[in-house]
C-alpha cells in the first residue's frame, strides 16, 4: 500500500516550500515518526516525519525543488512495489525525475541571497541534485568574491567599514509581516505592573518540596487564559462583516531563534495545569530551536504571549500577530522597593504590556483585561499543580 508524502501547509498564508534535504534515499527503510525530509518555507524550516513505516519507493521532488503546498513529494510503500528490485544489502528503485529548469529551480533562500547581493545565479555553479544551486553554493560564491560578490543594488553605495549582511528568508518574512500588521491593525499599547511575590513564593515552595522548577511563564499563561474567559473579545479576529470570537484558546508563545522568531502554539491552554503547561512550553521551545516542530504546531494561534523580559527588557510594545487582535508582553521580573501601606517593602515585580487592535478592542476593555490578568497573578492561593 502506497502512502503519498505531500508538501504540507507550514503556516498560515504560506503558498510554497522547498525540499532542503532527504534523510532517506530511495529504497531505504524508514520507521513511523522518523525524520524523512527537511522542508523550508518563508516562515520556518522543519523536519517532516514519516507518517508510516515502510520503504521510500520514490522521490518525486529532489533536494532544492520549490513547489506549491499540496504537491506530491514522494511515496512510501508498506511493502515493496512490483518495480522494486530486491538485492542483497538493500532495495533499489527507479530514479526520481528532476524538476524543470527556470525560476522554480531556485529555493526562496537562494533567490533571496542572490537578490540581496545583486547576483546573477547563472554564474553560480550548482552542486545540488541535477546541478541545482543550493544556499551553500551561493554563500561560498559570496565568500570567494570578498563578501559582496557583485555591486550593491542600484541606488546604494557602501562606505568603508560597511558590509551587507544577507537577509535570510525568515528575516525577510518577519519584516514583511510586521509592517503588514502595523498597516492592518490600529495598534495601541497599555502597560500594567503586577506583583509576582506570591508566584515567587509558590515557586520556591514547589522547588523545595518536590524539586520541580517552574518558570513564571506558565503562571502568566494561566492568568491570561482565565482573563480571556472573562473577556472573550481578546480571543478574536477582525472581519469586514464582524468580529470573530474564537471559542478555543490556543496561545502562541513567541520563541527566539538564532535567525529570527517562531511562534509555536499551546492548544487549549485554558484546560491545562501549571506542570503540563511548563512541560509543553519547554518542549515546544526546544523543538522550535532544533527544527522538530510538526506543521500544525505553528498554526491556529488565537492570542500570543512574548516574554521579552528574558533578556532583561522591562517594557515593550509588541506587534500583533495577525489575524489575532492582541499580544501580551512580559517584562523582566525582579525585586524592587515598593510602597505597601505607607511602608517600604521589597517585592518581586514585573511589567506587563498589551498591544491590541483598537478596531476590535476599546481602551477600557483592554485595561479591564489587564487588571484581571494582574489580579489572577496576585492571588494568594494557587491551584494544585496538575
Structural notes for this entry:
This protein has 386 residues and is α+β, with helices and mostly antiparallel strands. It has 3 domains: 2-92, RNA polymerase II/Efflux pump adaptor protein, barrel-sandwich hybrid domain (OB fold (Dihydrolipoamide Acetyltransferase, E2P), Beta Barrel); 103-167, E3-binding domain (Dihydrolipoamide Transferase); 186-377, Chloramphenicol Acetyltransferase. 25% of the residues lie in helices and 27% in strands. The protein contains 7 helices and 21 strands. It has helices at residues 108-117, 135-144, 169-184, 197-210, 217-230, 274-289, 363-377; strands spanning 2-6, 16-22, 29-30, 35-40, 45-49, 54-59, 66-68, 72-77, 85-87, 90-92, 187-195, 236-239, 242-245, 251-253, 255-257, 260-262, 265-266, 303-306, 326-330, 334-340, 343-357. Strands 11, 14, 17, 18, 19, 20 and 21 form a 7-stranded mixed beta sheet that branches. A hairpin with a 2-residue loop joins strand 9 (85-87) and strand 10 (90-92). Helix 1 (108-117) runs parallel beside helix 2, helix 5 packs across helix 6 (274-289) and helix 5 crosses helix 7 (363-377). The radius of gyration is 25 Å and the shape is globular. Residues 2-77 form the Lipoyl-binding domain. Forms a 24-polypeptide structural core with octahedral symmetry. It is an enzyme of class 2 (transferase). Residues 105-142 form the Peripheral subunit-binding (PSBD) domain. Keywords: Acyltransferase, Lipoyl, Transferase.
Amino acid at each position: 500500500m502506497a502512502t503519498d508524502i505531500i508538501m504540507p501547509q507550514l503556516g498560515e498564508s504560506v503558498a510554497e516550500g522547498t525540499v532542503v534535504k532527504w534523510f532517506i534515499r530511495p529504497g531505504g527503510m524508514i520507521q513511523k515518526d522518523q525524520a524523512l525530509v527537511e522542508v523550508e518555507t518563508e516562515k520556518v524550516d522543519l523536519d517532516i516525519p514519516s507518517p508510516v513505516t515502510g520503504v521510500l519507493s520514490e522521490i518525486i521532488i529532489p533536494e532544492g525543488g520549490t513547489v506549491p503546498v499540496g504537491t506530491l513529494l514522494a511515496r512510501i510503500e508498506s511493502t515493496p512495489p512490483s518495480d522494486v528490485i530486491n538485492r542483497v544489502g538493500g532495495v533499489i528503485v527507479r530514479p526520481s525525475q528532476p524538476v524543470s529548469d527556470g525560476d522554480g529551480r531556485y529555493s526562496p533562500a537562494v533567490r533571496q541571497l542572490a537578490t540581496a547581493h545583486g547576483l546573477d545565479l547563472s554564474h553560480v555553479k550548482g552542486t545540488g541534485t541535477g546541478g541545482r544551486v543550493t544556499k551553500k553554493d551561493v554563500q561560498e560564491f559570496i565568500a570567494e568574491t570578498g563578501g559582496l560578490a557583485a555591486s550593491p543594488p542600484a541606488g546604494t553605495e557602501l562606505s568603508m567599514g560597511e558590509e551587507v549582511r544577507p537577509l535570510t528568508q525568515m528575516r525577510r518574512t518577519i519584516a514583511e509581516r510586521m509592517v503588514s500588521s502595523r498597516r492592518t491593525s490600529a495598534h495601541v499599547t497599555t502597560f500594567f505592573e503586577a506583583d509576582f511575590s506570591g508566584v515567587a513564593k509558590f515557586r520556591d515552595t514547589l522547588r523545595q518540596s518536590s524539586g520541580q522548577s517552574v518558570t513564571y511563564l506558565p503562571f502568566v499563561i494561566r492568568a491570561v487564559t482565565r482573563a480571556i474567559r472573562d473577556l472573550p473579545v481578546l480571543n478574536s479576529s477582525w472581519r469586514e462583516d464582524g468580529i470573530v470570537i474564537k471559542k478555543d484558546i490556543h496561545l502562541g508563545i513567541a520563541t527566539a531563534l538564532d535567525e529570527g522568531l517562531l511562534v509555536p502554539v499551546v492548544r487549549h491552554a485554558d484546560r491545562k495545569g501549571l506542570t503540563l503547561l511548563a512541560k509543553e512550553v519547554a518542549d515546544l521551545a526546544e523543538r522550535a530551536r532544533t527544527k522538530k516542530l510538526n506543521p500544525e504546531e505553528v498554526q491556529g494561534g488565537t492570542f500570543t504571549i512574548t516574554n521579552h523580559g528574558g533578556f532583561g527588557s522591562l517594557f515593550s510594545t509588541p506587534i500583533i500577530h495577525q489575524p489575532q487582535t492582541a499580544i501580551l508582553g512580559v517584562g523582566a521580573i525582579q525585586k524592587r522597593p515598593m510602597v505597601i501601606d505607607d511602608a517600604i517593602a521589597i517585592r518581586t515585580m514585573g511589567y506587563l504590556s498589551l498591544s491590541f487592535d483598537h478596531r476590535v478592542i476599546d481602551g477600557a476593555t483592554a485595561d479591564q483585561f489587564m487588571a484581571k490578568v494582574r489580579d489572577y497573578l496576585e492571588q494568594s492561593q494557587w491551584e494544585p499543580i496538575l
